[in-house]
Amino acid sequence: MTAIPQILIAALGNLPMPLTRHSLGQYVLDAMAIRLGIRMSSDRKGIIGQGIVTLGDTPVSLILYKSKSFMNISGPSIAEVYRTSVKSPNTMIVLQDSMSHKVEQLSVKLGGSANGHNGVKSIISSLGGEQGFYRFRLGIGERGGTDAANFVMGKLTPHEREFWTDEGLDRILEAIEIVAQKAAR
Protein backbone atom coordinates (compact mmCIF):
# COMPACT_ATOMS: atom_id res chain seq x y z
CA MET A 1 0.00 0.00 0.00
CA THR A 2 1.34 3.43 -0.90
CA ALA A 3 1.33 6.32 1.52
CA ILE A 4 -1.34 8.98 1.16
CA PRO A 5 0.26 11.96 -0.58
CA GLN A 6 0.30 15.22 1.36
CA ILE A 7 -0.30 18.42 -0.62
CA LEU A 8 0.01 22.00 0.63
CA ILE A 9 -2.32 24.46 -1.07
CA ALA A 10 -1.31 28.06 -0.40
CA ALA A 11 -3.72 30.74 -1.57
CA LEU A 12 -2.58 34.21 -2.51
CA GLY A 13 -4.70 37.25 -1.75
CA ASN A 14 -5.23 40.05 0.72
CA LEU A 15 -7.47 39.11 3.66
CA PRO A 16 -8.77 42.66 4.20
CA MET A 17 -9.88 42.76 0.53
CA PRO A 18 -12.03 39.69 -0.05
CA LEU A 19 -13.98 39.19 -3.27
CA THR A 20 -11.45 41.17 -5.33
CA ARG A 21 -9.67 39.74 -8.35
CA HIS A 22 -6.38 39.92 -6.45
CA SER A 23 -7.81 37.73 -3.67
CA LEU A 24 -9.28 35.11 -6.02
CA GLY A 25 -6.87 32.46 -4.71
CA GLN A 26 -8.14 32.92 -1.16
CA TYR A 27 -11.75 32.97 -2.35
CA VAL A 28 -11.23 29.62 -4.08
CA LEU A 29 -9.47 28.17 -1.02
CA ASP A 30 -12.43 29.12 1.18
CA ALA A 31 -14.83 27.45 -1.27
CA MET A 32 -12.59 24.36 -1.34
CA ALA A 33 -12.54 24.13 2.46
CA ILE A 34 -16.34 24.31 2.57
CA ARG A 35 -16.84 21.74 -0.18
CA LEU A 36 -14.33 19.28 1.29
CA GLY A 37 -15.41 19.81 4.91
CA ILE A 38 -12.01 21.04 6.07
CA ARG A 39 -12.29 23.29 9.11
CA MET A 40 -10.06 26.35 8.95
CA SER A 41 -8.61 27.97 12.05
CA SER A 42 -6.63 31.13 12.62
CA ASP A 43 -3.13 31.31 14.05
CA ARG A 44 -0.74 34.20 14.39
CA LYS A 45 0.47 34.25 10.76
CA GLY A 46 -2.38 32.75 8.79
CA ILE A 47 -5.49 30.65 8.47
CA ILE A 48 -4.93 26.91 8.10
CA GLY A 49 -6.88 23.70 7.82
CA GLN A 50 -5.99 20.08 7.25
CA GLY A 51 -7.87 16.95 6.31
CA ILE A 52 -7.73 13.67 4.45
CA VAL A 53 -10.12 13.77 1.52
CA THR A 54 -10.81 11.69 -1.57
CA LEU A 55 -10.47 13.47 -4.90
CA GLY A 56 -11.86 11.24 -7.64
CA ASP A 57 -10.47 7.87 -6.52
CA THR A 58 -7.39 9.31 -4.85
CA PRO A 59 -7.04 9.79 -1.07
CA VAL A 60 -5.10 12.98 -0.34
CA SER A 61 -3.94 14.68 2.83
CA LEU A 62 -4.54 18.38 2.16
CA ILE A 63 -3.18 21.34 4.05
CA LEU A 64 -5.00 24.55 3.12
CA TYR A 65 -3.31 27.83 4.00
CA LYS A 66 -3.77 31.54 3.50
CA SER A 67 -1.39 34.09 4.95
CA LYS A 68 -2.52 37.05 7.03
CA SER A 69 0.27 39.09 5.41
CA PHE A 70 -0.46 41.15 2.34
CA MET A 71 0.08 39.14 -0.83
CA ASN A 72 3.34 40.77 -1.87
CA ILE A 73 4.99 39.85 1.46
CA SER A 74 3.20 36.54 2.13
CA GLY A 75 6.19 34.40 1.15
CA PRO A 76 7.77 34.03 4.63
CA SER A 77 4.62 32.66 6.26
CA ILE A 78 3.89 30.33 3.32
CA ALA A 79 7.52 29.11 3.36
CA GLU A 80 7.24 28.39 7.08
CA VAL A 81 4.18 26.16 6.56
CA TYR A 82 5.93 24.51 3.59
CA ARG A 83 9.03 23.69 5.66
CA THR A 84 7.00 22.21 8.52
CA SER A 85 4.73 20.13 6.29
CA VAL A 86 5.39 18.92 2.76
CA LYS A 87 9.08 19.90 2.28
CA SER A 88 9.04 18.93 -1.41
CA PRO A 89 8.30 21.68 -3.93
CA ASN A 90 6.24 19.45 -6.25
CA THR A 91 3.77 18.88 -3.41
CA MET A 92 2.96 22.57 -2.99
CA ILE A 93 0.30 24.32 -5.06
CA VAL A 94 -0.07 28.09 -5.07
CA LEU A 95 -3.48 29.48 -6.06
CA GLN A 96 -2.88 32.84 -7.73
CA ASP A 97 -4.77 35.35 -9.84
CA SER A 98 -3.52 35.82 -13.39
CA MET A 99 -4.11 38.72 -15.77
CA SER A 100 -2.35 36.63 -18.45
CA HIS A 101 -5.27 34.21 -18.60
CA LYS A 102 -8.84 34.68 -19.71
CA VAL A 103 -11.56 35.10 -17.11
CA GLU A 104 -12.54 31.72 -15.65
CA GLN A 105 -9.53 29.93 -17.15
CA LEU A 106 -7.37 27.59 -15.05
CA SER A 107 -3.75 27.15 -16.11
CA VAL A 108 -1.56 24.69 -14.23
CA LYS A 109 2.19 25.21 -14.33
CA LEU A 110 5.01 23.42 -12.52
CA GLY A 111 8.02 25.61 -11.82
CA GLY A 112 9.34 28.61 -13.69
CA SER A 113 9.62 32.27 -12.91
CA ALA A 114 7.10 34.42 -11.06
CA ASN A 115 6.07 35.95 -14.41
CA GLY A 116 5.80 39.37 -12.76
CA HIS A 117 3.48 38.20 -9.95
CA ASN A 118 4.75 39.79 -6.71
CA GLY A 119 3.09 37.21 -4.45
CA VAL A 120 4.84 34.38 -6.29
CA LYS A 121 8.11 36.38 -6.21
CA SER A 122 7.79 36.61 -2.42
CA ILE A 123 7.33 32.84 -2.14
CA ILE A 124 10.29 32.06 -4.41
CA SER A 125 12.49 34.46 -2.45
CA SER A 126 11.38 32.99 0.89
CA LEU A 127 12.16 29.48 -0.38
CA GLY A 128 15.72 30.54 -1.20
CA GLY A 129 15.08 30.71 -4.94
CA GLU A 130 13.16 27.42 -5.19
CA GLN A 131 10.75 27.58 -8.13
CA GLY A 132 9.69 23.93 -8.47
CA PHE A 133 6.19 24.25 -7.04
CA TYR A 134 2.87 24.24 -8.86
CA ARG A 135 1.09 27.45 -9.77
CA PHE A 136 -2.63 27.18 -10.39
CA ARG A 137 -3.14 30.40 -12.32
CA LEU A 138 -6.75 31.54 -12.06
CA GLY A 139 -7.69 33.76 -14.96
CA ILE A 140 -9.02 37.23 -14.17
CA GLY A 141 -8.63 38.53 -17.72
CA GLU A 142 -6.70 41.38 -19.23
CA ARG A 143 -7.00 44.84 -17.73
CA GLY A 144 -7.48 46.65 -21.03
CA GLY A 145 -6.72 50.34 -20.50
CA THR A 146 -7.28 50.14 -16.74
CA ASP A 147 -4.39 50.65 -14.31
CA ALA A 148 -3.19 47.19 -13.17
CA ALA A 149 -3.55 48.00 -9.44
CA ASN A 150 -7.09 49.31 -9.90
CA PHE A 151 -8.00 46.31 -12.06
CA VAL A 152 -6.84 43.62 -9.60
CA MET A 153 -8.51 45.43 -6.70
CA GLY A 154 -11.82 45.40 -8.58
CA LYS A 155 -14.57 43.12 -7.30
CA LEU A 156 -15.25 39.71 -8.79
CA THR A 157 -18.57 39.63 -10.62
CA PRO A 158 -21.39 37.45 -9.25
CA HIS A 159 -20.89 35.18 -12.27
CA GLU A 160 -17.14 34.81 -11.53
CA ARG A 161 -17.84 34.02 -7.87
CA GLU A 162 -20.36 31.37 -8.88
CA PHE A 163 -17.99 29.87 -11.46
CA TRP A 164 -15.07 29.52 -9.02
CA THR A 165 -17.25 27.85 -6.36
CA ASP A 166 -18.81 25.44 -8.88
CA GLU A 167 -17.35 24.46 -12.28
CA GLY A 168 -14.01 26.22 -11.69
CA LEU A 169 -13.57 24.50 -8.33
CA ASP A 170 -14.38 21.15 -9.98
CA ARG A 171 -11.52 21.77 -12.45
CA ILE A 172 -9.15 22.77 -9.65
CA LEU A 173 -9.96 19.64 -7.61
CA GLU A 174 -9.38 17.45 -10.69
CA ALA A 175 -5.99 19.12 -11.20
CA ILE A 176 -5.10 18.62 -7.51
CA GLU A 177 -5.90 14.91 -7.90
CA ILE A 178 -3.40 14.70 -10.78
CA VAL A 179 -0.73 16.44 -8.67
CA ALA A 180 -1.45 14.03 -5.79
CA GLN A 181 -1.22 10.99 -8.08
CA LYS A 182 2.19 12.19 -9.33
CA ALA A 183 3.35 12.77 -5.74
CA ALA A 184 2.30 9.24 -4.74
CA ARG A 185 4.57 7.63 -7.38
Descriptive account of the structure:
The chain is 34% helix and 25% strand. The chain has six helices and seven strands. It has helices spanning 24-36, 75-83, 118-126, 148-152, 158-165, 167-184; strands at 6-11, 41-42, 46-55, 58-67, 92-98, 106-110, 134-139. The chain has a seven-stranded mixed beta sheet with strand order 2-3-4-1-5-7-6, sandwiched between helices.
CA-CA gap between termini:
12 Å
Shape category: globular
Major pleated sheet: 7 strands, mixed
Report Rg. 15 Å
Which whole number gives the mean pLDDT? 95
Q: Strand arrangement, largest sheet? A: 2-3-4-1-5-7-6
**Percentage of helical residues?**
25-40%
What is the overall number of helices?
Answer: 6
| Annotation, overall tally of beta strands | 7
Briefly note the structural class of the backbone: alpha/beta
Contiguous runs where pLDDT drops below 50 for at least 5 residues: none
Q: What proportion of the residues form beta strands (DSSP E)?
A: 15-25%
Order of helices and strands: EHEEEHEEHEHHH
Map the helices and strands.
Blueprint: E1 6-11, H1 24-36, E2 41-42, E3 46-55, E4 58-67, H2 75-83, E5 92-98, E6 106-110, H3 118-126, E7 134-139, H4 148-152, H5 158-165, H6 167-184
Parallel strand pairs: 1-4, 1-5, 5-7
Antiparallel strand pairs: 2-3, 3-4, 6-7
Short description:
This protein is α/β, with parallel strands linked by helices. The chain is 34% helix and 25% strand.
